Amino acid sequence: MASKGTNRHEFCPYELAWAGAPNKAGLTHLYSECAGKGVCDRETGQCECFGGFEGKGCGRQSCPDDCSGHGTCEFQNELTFGTVWGDYYDGSAYGFRGLGNGATIPAADASWDADRARACVCDGGWSGINCASRMCASGNDVMDLRANTGVAANAQVQTITLISGGVDGGKTAAADAPTDFNGKSFALTFTSKMNETFTTVPVQMESGNIGTLATNESTASDYNSYECGRRGKCDYDTGLCSCFEGYTGESCTSLTALI
Fold this sequence. Notes:
It contains no helices and 22 strands. It has strands at residues 14-16, 31-33, 38-41, 46-49, 53-54, 60-61, 71-75, 118-122, 126-127, 133-134, 138-140, 157-161, 185-186, 189-191, 197-199, 203-204, 214-219, 225-227, 232-235, 240-243, 247-248, 254-255. Pfam families: EGF_2.
């Protein structure tokens, strides 16, 4: 008597669908096998994810080209405001006080894909969605004009504020405890326009001196800084500026001739 064989029909993991038709209540992103971004192998019960998706049930995005080896792949709820140069505390919210030292997450992200969608955060000197492009030097546009050249040009000034926490960490105003800073030192960490991070040597506080840990632009500069000084093109393969005719320098900020 011949024995009967057993046909196995495996199911694959279900995850929130990246896209799909709504149900009768109008709800979307319902649970779907392989999140709707892969094909289930019925013999193994494993999802074979389409390009750009990975993980159990194809439930998370992969980063383009694995960030080309020049960055890290971060989830949406890990991305920060103030990661790149130019973002600084503007006085509008207490949560922005930490900018310039590792950036900050302004608020919790409760989006359905907050812990599923991902993007590259590039290392210093690299940019682009896959961190494959080198950054070029930036500088002032040498042909920029000011309304009144009879007065000295303003350079940007940022004011740093150190806020005392007191012995229990509960104080919020700098004037609460001036002596908390006596004999203490601190260091500043900042990010350059090339997205490179630097930390100063320790700065010793003198008796009676109070600064503030917020940063704000107290004096705006008369000039803005542009990639290749706005007088050249960036070669994203080499990170070098190709200056237009009549301009030279690392960031094309020097004239070679007056016409």
